[in-house]
From TrEMBL, chain A:
Belongs to the CcmH/CycL/Ccl2/NrfF family. It holds the Pfam family CcmH. Residues 7-163 form the CcmH/CycL/Ccl2/NrfF N-terminal domain. The keyword Transmembrane applies. The chain crosses the membrane at residues 102-122. Residues 129-152 are annotated as: Disordered. InterPro entries: C-type_cytochrome_biogenesis, CcmH/CycL/Ccl2/NrfF_N. It comes from Marinobacterium weihaiense. Possible subunit of a heme lyase. Keywords: Cytochrome c-type biogenesis, Heme, Iron, Membrane, Metal-binding, Signal, Transmembrane, Transmembrane helix. This is Cytochrome c-type biogenesis protein. Residues 1-18 form the signal peptide.
From TrEMBL, chain B:
Belongs to the thioredoxin family. DsbE subfamily. It comes from Marinobacterium weihaiense. Keywords: Cytochrome c-type biogenesis, Disulfide bond, Redox-active center. Its main location: membrane. Pfam families: Redoxin. It comes from the Bacteria. This is DsbE family thiol:disulfide interchange protein. NCBIfam families: dsbE. It is a single-pass membrane protein. Residues 38-179 form the Thioredoxin domain.
Amino acid sequence: MRALLMWLMLLVPLSAQAAIDAYEFSDEQKEERFQQLTNELRCPKCQNQNIADSDAPLAADLRREVHRMLEAGEPNESIIDFMVTRYGDFVLYRPRVNETTWLLWYGPFVLLGIGILVVVLISRNRRQNSASTSEATPPAAPGRYQASDSLSTEEAERLNKLLQRDSDQ
Amino acid sequence: MNNRKLLAFIPLALFLLLGLFLWRGLSIDPTELPSELADKKRPIPAFELPSLTEPSRLLTPDDLKGEVALLNVWATWCPTCKEEHGFLNRLAQDENVTIYGINYKDEPGKAREWLRRYLNPYQKVVLDQDGSLGLDMGVYGAPETYVLDPEGRVRYRHVGAVDAEVWKTLKQVMAQVEQESRS
């Protein structure tokens, strides 16, 4: 039983390795760049996968090209240029910053700025409002009217009497 | 007070903006694949590959110049290519269309047998066995059909089978290119 389990354990890493092509790199840095590039390049054939994930033959071709160019000592930019001249900006999961993508790159920050501005404006408005209401004199007792600009003393008394009479009934 | 009135219009503005984006989204076809060659009227990238039908002969982009033509990417492993093959034969015979072929990532023996059995609509067939020309052209898969102008530049690209419906578009593009190159 234990021996069997050991054998099964041995099989686990082997099956995980099977899906990855065996590329050899002259140094570790190139391998890292390979991982990064294949993760950021979109497979043109199966559009919701990057070329690292895709099993499509086209993705395998593109991985081979990336590996070949890396080993030839090409910088990342020229590898990305190579892909873009063939398949368009469409293959970039990390779009370049240019006039057509300004909205995409900076739009969220603009929206954030607008949000902050709105919050600041609203809170300032509210503070002013509460300040102005606290200055106003509150009514002496609810339901009782006092003389003011629109009511003379006699009118106020009369109004209070009338209201009193209504609430007595 | 004036400020507050303006604030009341924010939801409306947001609604209009969102509506604009969604409306635009409706008219975008996500399955449409961009072609760098066709969008920028680029010439066919440099290549030097053997001909499928005359293996001793090397073909270059110059062999595809001279007239408005179709360039069809095909392979025997591609079922849709078989589907469109009859239509390509008809175009070559009845409509006198110049069609060049790229045999893409295929076995030359099988490809020759295919042309013998189903007839050959192509004036020249480039043998692109390892798919390097396909890669340089930005080919997604087979079949794909390109419209070339007399200088060998790509003017249009169609992904998928050519049928009567697609031919209407291709014919229109070819006529337009023809007119341009004459003037």
